[in-house]
UniProtKB/TrEMBL annotation:
The lineage of its organism: Bacteria, Bacillati, Actinomycetota, Actinomycetes, Pseudonocardiales. PANTHER family: HTH-TYPE TRANSCRIPTIONAL REGULATOR BETI, HTH-TYPE TRANSCRIPTIONAL REGULATOR RUTR. Residues 22-82 form the HTH tetR-type domain. Residues 45-64 bind DNA. This is TetR/AcrR family transcriptional regulator. Pfam families: TetR_C_6, TetR_N. Signal peptide: none annotated. InterPro entries: BetI_C, Homeodomain-like_sf, HTH-type_TetR-like_transc_reg, HTH_TetR, Tet_transcr_reg_TetR-rel_C_sf.
Length: 208
């Protein structure tokens, strides 16, 4: 029977391999985001992503399989945890307000992945290979917003006559619209000041 000392290097090697895989995937997604921001969605190919990240096209294919799968993964990764402070909060009015304020504030960071997401989202309106993925992403976002409103109505912090779906559509549209304005005219959008203003407006509009 192998000793503990003999087994330990095997577990360490496995962890190292998983770490390398994670790092490679992150590097490929980062390279794809850079290409989207610099040259647009149509400029993204598996070969160019691999070259930008310092890998072969075969590595990109191994991780994602196709350009569409790569863009899907980029869309998901660029929005996951976009406002990390709300991750552990229970649904309701306070989470909704913090999400709105945090989202607008994060837009001011001008990160590559956030900009890539907005460009992909805009492209999805006319690109069939992107539309389904972004419909799913937007619906997941609306579902979270609806949960906040529904719970707020139930606990009495949000007006009873409020329609959760209407609020979800309006909030998502406002956040994405602010993001696109920031992308096109950064100097026109003061995200730090606007984040507070928009959050206060929604609090006044919804509070019971």
């Amino acid at each position: 029977m192998p000793s503990q000392q003999q087994r330990t290097p095997v577990r360490t090697a496995r962890r190292t391999q998983e770490q390398r895989r994670t790092e490679t995937r992150a590097a490929l997604l980062g390279a794809a985001a850079q290409l989207v921001v610099e040259s647009g969605v149509r400029a993204v190919t598996l070969a160019r992503v691999g070259e930008r990240a310092g890998y072969s096209r075969g590595i990109v294919t191994h991780h994602f399989g196709s350009k569409q799968a790569l863009l899907d993964a980029l869309a998901k990764s660029s929005q996951s945890g976009f406002v990390p402070s709300v991750g552990d909060m229970p649904p309701g009015l306070e989470r909704l307000i913090l999400l709105i304020e945090g989202y607008v504030s994060e837009l001011g960071r001008d990160g590559i992945t956030g900009r890539a997401f907005l460009l992909l989202w805009a492209e999805a309106a006319t690109a069939p290979e992107l539309s389904e993925s972004f419909r799913e992403r937007d619906e997941a976002f609306r579902a979270d917003l609806r949960d906040d409103v529904t719970v707020g109505i139930a606990d009495g912090t949000i007006r009873a006559e409020t329609d959760p779906q209407d609020v979800a559509v309006a909030v998502l549209g406002q956040l994405r619209g602010i993001g696109m304005q920031r992308l096109l005219a950064p100097d026109a959008v003061d995200t730090q000041r606007l984040s507070r203003t928009v959050a206060q407006q929604w609090r006044r509009a919804l509070s019971a």
